[in-house]
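Ticket opened by: R.M.
Priority: normal
Category: complex prediction / small molecule

The reporter submitted a protein together with glycine and asked that the result be attached to this ticket for the collaborator who will pick it up next week. Submitted input follows.
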Amino acid sequence: MSKIFVKTPQQPKKEYPIIIDKNLLQKSGELIQSSTKAKKLLIVTNSTVEKLYLNKLEDSLKNLFEYDCLILEDGEEYKNISSLEKIWTKAIDIKLERKDAIVALGGGVIGDITGFAAASYLRGVDFIQIPTTLLAQVDSSVGGKVAINHQNGKNLMGAFYQPKIVIADTDTLNTLPEREIKTGLSEIIKYAFIEKTCNHNTNFDLLNFLQINSENIKNLNHQTIQKLIAICCELKACVVNQDETEKGLRAILNFGHTIAHSIEKCTNYTIFTHGEAVAMGLKGAFEISLKKHLISQDYFDTAINLLNEYNLMYKIPQNIPAEDLYNAMFSDKKVENKHIRFILATSKAEVKMFDDIEKNIILETLKSLK
Ligand code: NAD
Ligand code: GLY
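Result attached by the on-call engineer:
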């Protein structure tokens, strides 16, 4: 079992654990009990995850909690105000009180929307994360960003609201479609490229770990995957400890995301998963870094080889004009004073923020990604 603590600057005395292991769903009742005084729980999941894992979770809660469940539709398009309202209504119907808790069982969509409901219902009730996708276990369940989408953009309404505990059962990854595993791998590879800038006091050398363990990782070998998820959570927790509300350092977690978000927006969030867009965004960020002479050709080749090793080479559809992708970058939340913000590689596992990248370099890069 791996156990990592997230300490947030706003609540330094209230650190919370991330527990990573197999067979955790069966133990989640006790784990939840150790993290909250709640007597009643509202479990929120979706129609896919319900069929796979809700029974297991319920079995472990039965003798410990009073609980009720809400099953949402599956899909990013349901991460909206209407689903949020369903959670609020259910919480009111079952008379969930302020000392009670809301549990998210699912991927990043369920985690984000349920977290926002927990942050806002009765001005905040305890929130428990049980992430069941690789992306959610290494990224979205950690760090307290919760949100819903608006028809004009993703994650436009949200909050920073930390969970009381994150329970990552690696067994749940066995039922994940390969495409969703690859989505998580893109975010994992991102951590390898930002590791040193996270300022963690351990040198994990995640880049090397990913290079030498690719077969075990692709085969979801339990020990390797547990270690991998733990390293990513350590790095994310370290960044969140330093900058919970993204005043500075936390922006490095968006390495590869400037281009990724514009690809997602220009394809209406339908063609690519988030991770597929991030894989293209990472490649683009490396190309800009090379064009700006920030990194060596050798390091560039290492990065591209790693993406190749994990079969993460995708292309932007030819029919999307580079100019449209460029314009879409201005609707990103991270735009400040009309400057597009790029996180770029500066040397092995190090990145830096730039807001002065020339338009022609961005356009050339976008064209090269087609
Ligand atoms: P997702 O939640 O849509 O899950 C992907 C698919 O896998 C869904 O169809 C889901 O039902 C299914 N699924 C989940 N667990 C499963 C399992 N164990 N077996 C089989 N199928 C399973 O997508 P995601 O990639 O987990 O998350 C994407 C979302 O996360 C986006 O909305 C994104 O904005 C958000 N996100 C948030 C943060 C954050 O810091 N809060 C960070 C990154 C991404
Ligand atoms: N996924 C980016 C962040 O948590 O800041």
